[in-house]
Amino acid sequence: MKQTKSLSLVVILLLAPVALAQGGGRSPQQSAGKTAARALEVYEQGKRLYDAKDYAGALERFDQAAAIEPDKARWQYNRGLALRKLDRFTEAREALLQSRTLDPAYKRAEIDDKLREMGFSPTPPPSTPASEPPDPSVSTPPAPPPELSVVLREETSKKPANPVWALCPYAGMALLFFLLIRWKLSKAKPLQDPHRASTSTLQPRSEELAPLEERLKQVAASLVQVEHALRLKEDADLRALLNQATMAEQNAWQSIADFRKGTASRSAVTRRLDKAHEAAEAAVAHARGLFGEQAFLPEGERVGCYFCARPLANPSFRMQVPLKRGSQVTHVLACPPCANMAAAGQPPPVTVQRLGNGQTQHWSELRGYDPYTHRHQPYPDMSTVPAWQYTPERSLGEVAAMAAGGALATGLAAYGVSQLLDLDSASEAAAAQAATQAAAKQASERREERDWKDHS
């Protein structure tokens, strides 16, 4: 420990002259640019962890990005996504609303959808009255942690500065360089989840998995009944309870999958199952309170969202989305979250089954696929593809009719029509975005290589 502290002190002393030479000519704009680049780099680490379903690790990185740039709505939005995956719904709501406060226009429709799915009502961002503008001399933005940023100040006083205090910015720059070197060295090591490492030796037996899966199937069957019950009336409270129970159920399925691979403990699976069971019981009880036993007798129409296959038992939960490909326009039925994405110009992904020959089949074309059942019980080999990439073998109008239960979407009741979604334009925009991201990645790799040389 003493050697480590001594080495750290030596590095700081050696880097102090370099920091003095480089820091003296750096402008506030350059410092802000480095801060933004650092936040983006940490976010990219979190995004990779999120895609790998390591939501706890992703949240840690998103927290770091938010600490570096506290006024960036994007980091708070991603914090909300990770917290939502961890079943920390109250904290997720706070993060999403904080994102909206920082930038009311940022992903407005997506935030509304996420809040509804968690059972919260979307809250409009707070507005400042025109008669009381904020006083810049009183309010100050939250400051990032001192070890992650350096504040450069210009001298405004004619009084000679104390030479001791004048050295503080340079000492801070030296500390920043030291932390940067330590971060570069740690980045070379692969990220590892300690909990996952400690549970990697678990190998469950089939007799252990069977009762867990059977219990979760009972939860799924209860939620399928609630999906059908909504045909009688669209109720906001019942929809919120159903959404919360579905999220808990999906988390439980994921826990069982992790347990099967040996990356989760039986106790962790049991906790998730308990949450899913309690949430499903609450939804069933509310449906029975609204409709009595009638809720669980007949079934709703076989109508599902063209994009995500979500069941659309009640007409007031459906929207029509016109899809344009070439010169042809086809109306499809969609759930409100997918319709909101389409209205914002973001094509929702389409649920398909990948075939062995590389082709795909729309969920409505699959034998035995039921939107109500398979929203809660996995159907084999299902995945999603971007809407502009999906090209059915039959006409798009035929597929849209099959998803709508055999009728044209324009002939079914729906509570509204979304804006036109141009799939050709979406394809071009996606290609341009992919090219931009590839160029940015190459530039980042070149910059990283240059930084290594600069600081070696």
Automatic annotation (TrEMBL):
Q: Recite the lineage of the species.
A: Bacteria, Pseudomonadati, Myxococcota, Myxococcia, Myxococcales
Composition bias (Basic and acidic residues) maps to 443-456
Q: Which residues form the signal peptide?
A: 1-21
- Where are stretches of biased composition, namely Low complexity? 430-442
User: What is the protein's given name?
Assistant: Tetratricopeptide repeat domain protein
Ranges annotated as biased composition (Pro residues): 122-147
InterPro entries in the record, alphabetically? TPR-like_helical_dom_sf, TPR_rpt
- Gene source species: Cystobacter fuscus (strain ATCC 25194 / DSM 2262 / NBRC 100088 / M29)
The cross-references to Gene3D superfamilies, in alphabetical order and at most eight, read: Tetratricopeptide repeat domain (1.25.40.10)
Q: Which PROSITE patterns does this entry report, sorted A to Z?
A: TPR
